[in-house]
Specification:
With 560 residues, the protein is an alpha+beta fold. 34% of the residues lie in helices and 28% in strands. The chain has 3 domains: 8-45 and 329-391, Jelly Rolls, CATH 2.60.120.1540; 51-325, Glycosyltransferase; 401-559, Alpha-macroglobulin, receptor-binding domain (Immunoglobulin-like, Sandwich). The protein is built from 15 helices and 24 strands. The strands form 6 sheets. A 6-stranded antiparallel β-sheet has the order 11-23-22-16-19-18, with no helix packed on it. A 4-stranded antiparallel β-sheet has the order 1-10-3-8. Helix 1 crosses helix 13, helix 7 packs antiparallel against helix 8 and helix 9 (213-223) packs parallel to helix 11. The longest helix has 21 residues, at 65-85. The chain is globular, with a radius of gyration of 28 Å. The protein starts with 7 loop residues before the first strand and ends with a strand. 41% of the residues are buried.
Length: 560
């Protein structure tokens, strides 16, 4: 006999540099006591597997000024991190150093008489964003000890100081303000900061809330340390806190432009990275910092981010994170107690990316009832921890619940609408032998990572797998036909999921990245067995952070 229970999870995350922390724990009520329990996960680093991101830039096949300067930024940023972790697969240090010298030489040959840069050759029109970006790379390389010709730096500095005269009149006001903000940020890197102009830019826009988020992030860094900018910094702190989207594990920002984003090589990940770097410098104790790191790492595909711009800025921010929080090589013991009971310990020595797990079964949690989970660290380094509770409610017919997703499910007659009806009390009635279209709707209020959508089946239904020859042709979905889901524009309507499984008792759909919005998943099932069945609710969750989840209604299904 199989009990169609639904699982749930909640978790909290934290860091510990010294001493101990106590997390109150209480055994949940109304749950199956044989399932789940308390989970403690610990690690000594928030950074892991950055080698692929650097190799992507080192081996990038094109050599325009943007790509070359982004490579210089990445190498300068990751030299400390990857040397500390002794990352495998990297070229020898001497080869990387020679590559940086060659890149700096190429950038020198591409610099125009006005101090700016075009994309491919000397004499090409200087592009404002690109010119600021190359100057930024030169400043970072110099700060890391690379030999950057002084004349090249001086000409770049002069270009940035006159950036407002370099911006074409065809550029929109949003783009212009972002370019000025980036130039002010870079001038500070070149030890030629101008906080007065940064404050003026905020006034011209009518306040920080009227500026694009990337401009705010660059100004956030440009104004730090200036005694005359206290009011502007306070406004930026409030605005950025209000703009963040966060879960228990991760955080990110959403930004957009009404026009001209292509002129800035814009992306949301770059905005996240810029804000992370600014927060580390201004509010190093902020609980958003490790969440932004987690969100950025979750955006990787094949170990890297989507463009040379994203990789460069994210790696710069992670370099700042490493040198602020993880510069000390770990050598510590983490211990845990649940109430009076000793739960276990883990030892972390040297640079490693392993995650250690301690699982406390639910019966042991009930023995304690209510108490503190105490986590203590002895030694040097930073401890990262996750405390989670996984459980299964004993009630088999559950109401909807939104903890990061809204999920709903309906049954429809695939061949004849009369094959499926619904009573006033919510009970579904399905004609035996008919085909049923199951339509699951999932709403994500903001972007989610590594999402699993699972729809349990009542025992009287059997999913029809279109990949099997024995299934035969399935009826078209009228909704998809209305949207134009076939023909030359089919790719506009391609599914949001990357993989699906049609199993005996459930159907699953997965994606590594889910953007905000309404997403629909449909499949066809055959009503094979008459009877009355309890069907658990459909559920969506982040696989690696299951405390971010949502479920629809549980239901009763009668096949007759």
């Amino acid at each position: 006999m199989w009990t169609p229970a639904t699982t749930e999870a909640f978790a909290t995350y934290g860091t510990l540099d010294s001493g101990a922390v106590a997390q109150p724990v209480k055994a949940p009520g109304g749950v199956v006591r044989e399932f789940g329990g308390l989970e403690l996960t610990t690690t000594s680093t928030a950074l892991a597997g950055l080698t692929d991101a650097l190799l992507y830039l080192v081996n990038y096949p094109f050599d325009c000024a943007e790509q070359v300067s982004s490579r210089v930024l990445a190498v300068a940023a990751l030299r400390d991190v990857l040397t500390a972790f002794k990352a495998e697969g990297l070229p020898p240090a001497a080869k990387i150093e020679a590559s940086v010298r060659a890149d700096l030489k190429r950038l020198k040959t591409l610099q125009n008489w006005d101090g700016g840069w075009g994309f491919w050759r000397w004499g090409e029109r200087s592009y404002p964003y690109l010119s600021i970006h190359v100057a930024h790379a030169l400043a970072r390389a110099k700060a890391k000890g690379y030999d950057v010709p002084r004349e090249m730096l001086d000409r770049a500095r002069s270009y940035l100081q006159t950036i407002e005269y370099r911006i074409p009149s065809s550029y929109g006001i949003e783009v212009k303000r972002v370019l000025i903000a980036y130039s002010l940020y870079t001038l500070r890197q070149l030890e030629s900061g101008n906080p007065g102009r940064a404050r003026q830019l905020i006034r011209e826009a009518g306040g920080v809330e009227k500026l694009p988020l990337e401009a705010v992030a660059w100004l956030y860094s440009a104004l730090q340390g200036d005694a005359g900018s206290a009011a502007e910094l306070a406004a930026i702190r409030l605005h950025t806190r209000n703009r963040v989207e966060e879960t228990a594990a991760a955080a990110h920002y959403v930004t957009s432009y009404s026009d001209g984003a292509h002129l800035l090589l814009h992306s949301d990940r770059r905005a996240d990275a810029l804000m992370l770097e600014a927060l580390i410098a201004d509010q190093p104790q902020s609980d958003l910092i490790p969440k932004l790191v987690e969100g950025l790492l979750a955006h990787r595909t094949a170990g890297r981010w989507g463009s040379t711009q994203e990789n460069a800025f994210v790696l710069l921010a992670l370099d700042r994170y490493f040198n602020t929080y993880e510069k000390v090589e770990p050598d510590f013991i983490a211990r845990a107690w649940l109430g009076p009971q000793y739960a276990g310990e883990q030892r972390f020595v040297g640079r490693q990316t392993d995650r250690q797990h301690v699982d406390i079964p639910m019966p042991e949690v009930f023995k304690v009832g209510a108490g503190d989970l105490v986590i203590a660290k002895e030694g040097k380094g930073r401890l990262y921890y996750r405390v989670g509770m996984r459980y299964a409610p004993s009630d088999l017919v559950l109401p909807p619940s939104d903890h990061g997703f809204v999920v709903d499910r309906v049954y429809e007659g695939a061949d004849d609408p009369k094959d499926v009806t619904r009573d006033k009390d919510g009970t579904w009635r399905i004609r035996a032998g008919s085909r049923v279209r199951v339509r699951v709707t999932m709403v994500a209020p903001t972007r989610r990572y590594h999402v699993a959508l699972v729809d349990p089946l009542p025992a009287g239904l059997e999913p029809q797998n279109p990949a099997l020859a024995t299934t035969g042709a399935l009826p078209d979905d009228p909704n998809e036909l209305q949207q134009g889901g076939s023909g030359r524009w089919w790719w506009w309507w391609r599914p949001w999921y990357e993989h699906q499984n049609l199993r005996d008792e459930r159907v699953e759909a997965f994606t590594s990245m889910l953007w905000e919005g309404v997403h629909t998943y449909t499949y066809v099932a055959l009503a094979t067995t008459p009877g009355t069945f309890v069907v658990p609710p459909p559920k969506a969750e982040e696989m690696y952070h299951p405390e971010t989840f949502g479920r629809g209604w549980g239901a009763k299904v009668i096949v007759e």
